[in-house]
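Human: Cast an eye over this sequence-structure pair and say how the chain folds.
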Amino acid sequence: MDGGRWPLAWIAAYDVTNDDEYLELEQGIFSELTKAWGTRCGGGLPWNPESSYVNAITNELFLSVAAHLANRVSSPPAHLKEMDT
């Protein structure tokens, strides 16, 4: 799942511009990625939505996105909190 590459690009754009819109884009993608967590292996993200294959790169991207986001945002915006309920 290359979806983990886009949030890292939005983080880089945010770091250059300080435009919160980039962080919001990243948070939205991250929220969608979290919905895919939990495979037959007990965790991790599948390589793509149609597969049950879990690989290291997909999960490394996910963890990197989570760490980058945690370093920049203290709490998610209200519209993303609503998505999780």
In short: The chain has a mean pLDDT of 82.
